Amino acid sequence: MKENSEQILVSRLLQKEEAAWKELFEAHSGSLAYVCSRYIIDRDQVNDVLQNSFIKMFRSIDSFEYRGKGSLKAWITRIAVNEALKHIKQNADFKIITDENDIPDIESEEEPDLDEISEQEIMEIIRTLPDGYRTVFNLFVFEEKSHKDIAEILGIAENSSASQFHRAKAMLARKIKEYKMSKTAQYE
């Protein structure tokens, strides 16, 4: 059976071939920066986390096990997400609201209306959510983590994770509605 290009790249990475690392960086740095920017707003901090992610990849490549097409991308994405989470937990400004009394009531549980709004615009709106909301939302939606997993990752109660997610979703729906109304007003 013939090796695919990903398997060949993994073999080269395992041999610590410099050109292979450059190839990996060039092929994936953009998508990994995008992943990091879902969690971290500041561009310089995103770049720091991205750099730390590649260092972590380099140091731990020996533990990588090829499990089929896409497994390398899944592994490097997981490292980038973990490094982003590590960064935000170490950031003194990061706060997950754990006291339910500190969470403002958000009136509805409506689903966001995503018609006529681009993915890029949605991602920009997600980036405006408060840190805790955004982090839980991203872990639940994009990383497909359960609230139990999120609670363990962030060191919070499982019901706090679920509450943060539902409030993030309601806030996102409101922000998308406001965005669409402002766009409509511009064209009238």
Please characterize this protein's 3D structure.
The protein has 188 residues and is mostly helical. Helices cover 67% and strands 0% of the residues. It has eight helices and no strands. It is globular, with a radius of gyration of 19 Å.
Tally the beta strands: 0
Helix and strand string, N-terminal first? HHHHHHHH
Share of β-strand residues: under 5%
Overall geometry comes to globular
Q: For the report, how would you describe the main beta sheet? A: none
Structural classification: mainly alpha
Radius of gyration, whole Å: 19 Å
Helical percent range? 55-70%
Mean pLDDT: 87
- The separation of the N and C termini measures 61 Å
Low-confidence stretches: 100-105
Multimerization state: single chain
Count up the helices.
8
Question: What is the structure about, briefly put?
Answer:
By secondary structure, this protein is mostly helical.
What labels would you give this structure?
mainly alpha
Q: Any chance you could write out the topology, listing elements then pairs?
A:
Elements: H1 5-14, H2 18-39, H3 43-60, H4 71-90, H5 119-126, H6 131-141, H7 147-154, H8 158-186
Helix pairs in contact: 1-2, 2-3, 2-4, 3-4, 6-8, 7-8
